[in-house]
Specification:
Radius of gyration: 20 Å
Number of helices: 7
Order of helices and strands: EEEEEEEHEEHEHEHHEHHEEE
Strand order of the largest sheet: 4-3-8-1-2-5
Strand content: 25-35%
Structural class: alpha/beta
Largest sheet: 6 strands, antiparallel
Shape: globular
Helix content: 10-25%
Distance between the termini: 31 Å
Length: about 325
Amino acid sequence: MKTSMPDPILPAVQQHLISPAEPAVARVVSSELCTRSSKAAGYVRHVAIDVSGTPLAGTFRAGQSFGVVPPGVDAKGRPHKLRLYSIASPTRGEDGEGTILATTVKRTIDEHWDDHSLFLGVCSNHLCDLKPGDEVLVTGPAGKRFLLPEDASAHDYVFFATGTGIAPFRGMLGDLEAGGFTGRAALVMGVPYTTDLLYDAELAALSERVDWFSYLKAISRESAEPTLGPGSGGRGLYVQDRLRTHAEELASLLRSERCLVYICGIAGMELGILRALAVMLSPDELAGYLGVSEEAGQPADWERRMIPRRLTPTKRLFIEVY
């Protein structure tokens, strides 16, 4: 059954003002370790970039991405391709003028599976190695759907993030606060260890500063909370588990036709959330977020490959995974 609340109206945004063929030169302003501890499992940096004098200045919006073109060539002698990074800043930028944007970058450090040699992600390490004053080639902006609606206060929000998927939500929450938001919003942030939490102090401070924001954490590789109940196997919490442990709080949001759900992070996280929503909500309430075909079967049988043909997100559900 279709909800009576009108679909969210997204703002018109500018895209691809800077092409990969002719990237613009920007400069790094700062680069700071983003995790709570230097002992975190991964290295994640908050990198702020001055885009003044480029078409990106004053044109990007929270929820969009921008491109970075790393220097050098690949093993075949071809220039490295650009990589897209989520903008972690509010629409007004880090500086309030829309000329400094930031992103949340995790260094990619791995092994080649065949010969066990070290693999370093070209662009992530390039960005993380840059110092204040260094030049960086940028493109964009990109993205027209993973955005807050034009009338943000006409809706409530539940944001689900894992790892660097927190980036767009940091910007969106900044926009909500600056715009005098009058609804309700909850963020569920999932990481392996407490030391991996990104922007934790900043988000906790926001939850103390405003009464419309709830900040929930889900730590997957530390001991489970008692509220998980029997059958948890002693595992830690995943983002979808917060739909159980905080069912009363989150259900009151999700059952409202005003509510929009945003999911950003590691590919695969969306399936657990969709299954948990199917358990929490009635079929009519779930239909506001997800169209479920008869062929999909029961939620326990759902597979990620069913998205979007058998599990079809509505305009109230926004998914961006990588």
